[in-house]
Amino acid sequence: MTIFLDSDSLVLVQGMTGAEGRKHTRRMLSAGTRIVGGVNPRKAGTTLTFEVEGYGPAAQRVRNGDVEVPVFGTVAEGMAATGANTTVIFVPPAFAKDAALEAIDAGIQTIVVITEGIPVADTTVFVNRALEAGVRLIGPNCPGIISPGQSNVGITPADITGPGRIGLVSKSGTLTYQLMYELRDIGFTTCLGIGGDPVVGTTHIDALEAFEADPDTEL
Question: 110: closest CA among 125, 127, 88?
Fold first, then answer.
């Protein structure tokens, strides 16, 4: 088992058509993440093609070659068309609040906000809305979440560790990667970067409670 993310997670990418969104969508696909669509109201109805080369623990599930991913106008449209239950946000800080609120109001299960530099006043609004709605929100200003061998949502390198029995939660992206690499011979159930901003959606306590409830996480 894992926490918050597994091989059944169906992922939308808000901001997939931007430079960062494109780069990390390709990397997530290569890690085996089931990305089912992007969201951009100005490019709804189009598709993006990604050249995918499988790597990391999930590489055996990845078919090398071109993968076409549809773009939807809204999160709600993407969910209706694909059954998506997870979204990752790669939009500029000025638009991040609206992107997060859109996903929350659409009823998505899990939101991962990668964007850094979001005003704390904006973050407070969408974090409180997520709590009220019972939506799992990770970030902002975080590397995301990876369950090695199953799925990777965010910017965490997928090829530096494999599945195992350790759960990892950290505010620091760099230290998350370092510990993943140093303990790669043991491996991880899930590695979670919660972000270093003053206000974040998922806290250390939230993550530790989830790991405690996971029978496959021993440490």
Answer: 88
